[in-house]
Automatic annotation (TrEMBL):
Substrate binds at H110. Residues 19-259 form the NADP-dependent oxidoreductase domain. GO terms for molecular function: methylglyoxal reductase (NADPH) activity. The active site is at Y52. It comes from the Bacteria. Belongs to the aldo/keto reductase family. Its EC number is 1.1.1.-, 1.1.1.283. The gene is yvgN_1. The lineage of its organism: Bacteria, Bacillati, Bacillota, Clostridia, Eubacteriales. This is Glyoxal reductase. Pfam families: Aldo_ket_red. The record marks K77 as: Lowers pKa of active site Tyr. Keywords: NADP, Oxidoreductase.
């Protein structure tokens, strides 16, 4: 973890940058400009999803940045309403068309769903045919992963989940580590709520860093890929300045002890149970 270009190596040998740029709830000129800014300051990893309805803007931002496509690790996700074998293949075609590319570096199933095994077969096909360099899931519990893996030919390479100091997910982290699945954190800053936590404020003063830099550095030292989102140029840059310091073992443990199992997003089992409603 030397700098912004540093990568983890997935279980298929593909390199994935430790820090990426999230784009959830960014659209129009905002997402175009923020993607361009992120690439300008050195990010090489951009995350989007069909559900975000901003793939077209992300694709435009990448194109206008003039950064060669092969220098960018690009992720998108298939939404619940597009799950199933044939529908997933069509959704993928729609995504890469909007993103103005002919391949993805990582394609994920966005949420666990009764059709996720069928959907996984489509991802395996795309992977075998070279349209995606890596495949994985998002918001899967260890139970969902066990179900998927028992029916899979190719094991998932990534699980992107909600992860932050109040939701450390110890059991899931251990399961993913044991099965060589890279864990990735969405909403690492708890949609801004980390800034209210006293311990993190104290550590920010101690290390002469911001609260967001403390949390993102903690993610990396926990072995978690992290994808903070911002549309503010100064914060886009600030979130990358996390490679010139190291949090001590004791302080890492203190942050980990903040865990209360609190989510800012949906609970995966509830999404699975209500997937028919979410398809509409």
């Amino acid at each position: 973890m030397q700098d912004i270009k540093s990568c983890t190596i997935l279980n298929n040998g593909v390199k994935m940058p430790w820090i990426g740029f999230g784009t959830y709830k960014a659209d129009g000129p905002s997402v175009i400009n923020s993607v361009k800014e992120a690439l300008k300051v050195g990010y090489g990893h951009i995350d989007t999803a069909a559900f975000y309805k901003n793939e077209d803007g992300v694709g435009t931002g990448i194109k206008e940045s003039k950064v060669p496509r092969e220098k960018i690790f690009l992720t998108s996700k298939v939404w619940i309403s597009d799950e199933g074998y044939e529908k997933t293949l069509k959704a993928f075609e729609a995504s890469i068309k909007k993103l103005k590319t002919d391949y993805l570096d990582l394609y994920l199933i966005h949420w666990p769903n009764p059709l996720h095994n069928e959907t996984w077969r489509a991802l395996e096909k795309l992977y075998k045919e070279g349209y995606v360099r890596a495949i994985g899931v998002s918001n899967f519990t260890s139970g969902h992963l066990k179900d998927l893996m028992s029916n899979a030919e190719i094991m998932p390479m990534v699980n992107q989940v909600e992860f932050h100091p109040l939701l450390v997910q110890n059991e899931l982290r251990e399961f993913c580590k044991k099965n060589s699945i890279q864990l990735e954190a969405w909403s690492p800053l708890m949609r801004g709520k980390v800034f209210e936590i006293s311990l993190l404020k104290e550590l920010a003063k101690k290390y002469k860093k911001t609260v967001s830099q403390i949390v993102l550095r903690w993610d990396l030292q926990m072995g978690i890929v992290t994808i903070p989102k911002s549309t503010t140029p100064s914060r886009i840059k600030e979130n990358t300045d996390i490679f010139d310091f190291k949090i001590s073992k004791d302080d890492m443990a203190k942050i980990q002890q903040l865990d209360k199992g609190i989510r800012t997003g949906s609970e995966p089992d509830e999404v699975y149970a209500n997937s028919d409603t979410l398809k509409k």
